[in-house]
Amino acid sequence: MASKIVKFGEDVEGFTIPVLNEREIRAGAGILFLLMFVTIMIVVMKGNFTPLKYAVLIFLTDILIRVLISPRFAPSLIPGRLIVRNQVPEYVGAQQKKFAWIIGIVLAVIMFALQVVANAYSPITGLICLICLVFLFFETAFGICIGCKVYNLVYRQKAQHCPGEVCEPKARQAIQKTSPGQLLIVLGFAAYIVATVVLFNDEFRKEPFDLFGLDGGAHTE
Fold first, then answer.
1. Which neighbouring-strand residues pair with 19?
2. Is the pLDDT of residue 221 over 50?
3. Residue 187: inside a domain
4. Which residue from 69, 78, 96, 114 lies 20 to 30 Å from 172 (Cα-Cα)?
5. Are the C-beta atoms of residues 103 and 59 closer than 8 Å to each other?
6. How confident is the model over 60-78, as a mean pLDDT?
7. What is the pLDDT of residues 111-167, one digit of tens each?
8. Is 214 among the domain residues?
9. Per-residue pLDDT reduced to its tens digit, 172-205
10. Angstrom distance (rounded) from CA 55 to CA 36
11. Phi and psi at residue 19, in whole multiples of 5°?
């Protein structure tokens, strides 16, 4: 009975190793990213660290459950599974995900010790928050597991069944190729943004007025 509860990965027909559903993982990463991003913004905008402390505790608890018990019981992955339940599963190897989440545990423990236990903030906590956000964003937005990339560097045995089959070398299809013209569009758009900032910064910095006068003139100069 215990072996059915404490188990990392699922046994799926057609796969010789335990696997996980990448779609579910991406949904869970999105939930955690939203939690961390909002609480960090509260710190930046209002200087209130209380929500971030709760977020760090939630993040650490969730990822400990994933690694030490089973991803099936992780509070962020359960709603993630419900959200993507009608989508065809995309199976990925469980081992590299476990390695990536162990990295997450290390970062979360350091953050918990400094932010919650010691009740302190420093460039270290800021850097860890940034790293966690980058990891979560790449997972949920691009399906790229940065920790899994590190796994391939650490272990000789390469990861199997990666998201998007990136572990399997193959030629790109036409729809995956990027033309020089497309790259020029991206560069041109970046130049457009810079030009907009230079030309309209003073105008955009003006405080907007209440179109319907609902604030009683509180923001009028």
1. 10, 93
2. no
3. yes
4. 96
5. no
6. 94
7. 999 999 999 999 999 999 999 999 999 999 998 888 888 887 887 667 777 776 666
8. no
9. 788 888 899 999 999 999 999 999 999 999 988 8
10. 6
11. -130, 165
Residue 169 and residue 44: Cα distance in Å, rounded?
A: 43
Residue position matching structure tokens 């990448």? 22
What is the sign of the dihedral through the CA atoms of 15, 19, 24 and 29? negative
What's the predicted TM-score (pTM) here? 0.81
Whose tokens are 């009740």? That residue is 119
**Sign of the CA dihedral running 110, 115, 120, 122:** positive
How far apart, in Å, are the Cα atoms of 139 and each of 10, 96, 153, 183, 218?
Answer: 20, 13, 18, 24, 43
Please give the Cα distance from 98 to 10 (Å, whole number). Answer: 13
Q: Which domain holds residue 49?
A: 2-170
Residues in the chain: 221
Alpha-carbon torsion, ordered 99, 104, 110, 114, to 10 deg: 180
Question: What torsion, rounded to 10 degrees, do the Cα atoms 2, 76, 112, 115 define?
Answer: -170
Q: Is residue 73 part of a domain?
A: yes
Burial class (CB in 10 A: 0-12, 13-18, 19+), 205: exposed
Q: Is residue 55 part of a domain?
A: yes
